[in-house]
């Protein structure tokens, strides 16, 4: 659902309400968490999501310290967000492995996903699998129906 530094693939846009309204080149999950006005209401545990994003960004920079895109997003968010600076100054470093995420989606309600991420040793290559908890499969199905073939949410769904 996301690329190397959190750039969402089209299928990942629908979970992060409002992200599809940004120009494609600025769509990024880390940027969304710290700068989008909807992020705090969409993400069920914003503080944990934010801390995980920062720790994972530190991990990725450790793997590829010369990557300009990683340093660019760090510099942008350090300038834009006091919360990002606070979490960055905590020096927490770890890759995302497993977890549970809750999304408060404005169209389909709460969605709870569990995830597992596998990392290729000493590489930024990773595979993440997200699965809805059994009580939330209907919401994921509804969310999938809100997507147009372009991958952008269908604004006519009600």
From TrEMBL:
Gene3D superfamilies: 3.30.450.180
Domain of life where this protein originates: Bacteria
Domain MmyB-like transcription regulator ligand binding: 13-141
Signal peptide boundaries: none
Protein name (record): MmyB-like transcription regulator ligand binding domain-containing protein
């Amino acid at each position: 659902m996301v690329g190397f530094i959190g750039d969402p693939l089209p299928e990942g846009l629908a979970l992060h309400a409002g992200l599809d309204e940004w120009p494609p080149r600025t769509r990024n999950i880390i940027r969304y968490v710290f700068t989008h006005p909807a992020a705090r209401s969409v993400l069920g545990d914003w503080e944990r999501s934010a801390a995980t994003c920062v720790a994972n960004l530190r991990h990725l920079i450790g793997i590829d310290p010369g990557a300009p895109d990683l340093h660019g997003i760090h510099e942008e968010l350090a300038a834009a967000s006091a919360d990002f600076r606070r979490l960055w100054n905590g020096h927490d470093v770890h890759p995302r492995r497993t977890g549970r995420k809750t999304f408060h989606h404005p169209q389909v309600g709460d969605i709870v996903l569990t995830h597992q991420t596998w990392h290729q040793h000493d590489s930024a290559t990773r595979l993440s699998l997200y699965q809805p908890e059994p009580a939330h499969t209907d919401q994921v199905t509804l969310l999938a129906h809100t997507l147009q073939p372009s991958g952008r949410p269908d604004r006519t769904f009600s």
